[in-house]
Amino acid sequence: MNTKHDGTVTVGVLLASVALTACSGSTDTPDESEPTRLAFAAPAKEQGRPEHIPGESVTAAPRLPEGKALAEIAAAEGSRTVPLGRIGEGPLSVLVNCQGRGTLEVTLQPMGMKFPLSCVKGEVSSTYNELRLKKPRAEATLKVTVPSTVRWSLTAGQ
To answer: What domain of life does the native source organism fall in (predicted)?
Structure first.
């Protein structure tokens, strides 16, 4: 059987593997929240890895596709806790860009959801995560843990 590969299968497998490594560590019961990780990727010829999105930067906060921004941070360095205040039921989106050598980790409290993003020198890595909340929270925060070698930007919204 003679088959031709144009990179489409590779991108599909990479996206599937990214989607399977979704957020972890939730302390909510399964009926309280439903984590979803959405991955965006450039065409196979342009991408360095699945989470690279051409045109993204760490000097501006990522653009929220819809809804209202609860927090926007640009050109950040070092670890930080980002207050979100009250969050309602429904989808909560977290978009993160990073650049530099190391792994950035975001933890959403009080749910305990965690997701990492591998950052590389000379290229912006991006991720978009969405958590569907079945009940509102009076206070929520995002804790960004990152080595000093990484610059980052973040937007969270509903």
So the answer is: Bacteria
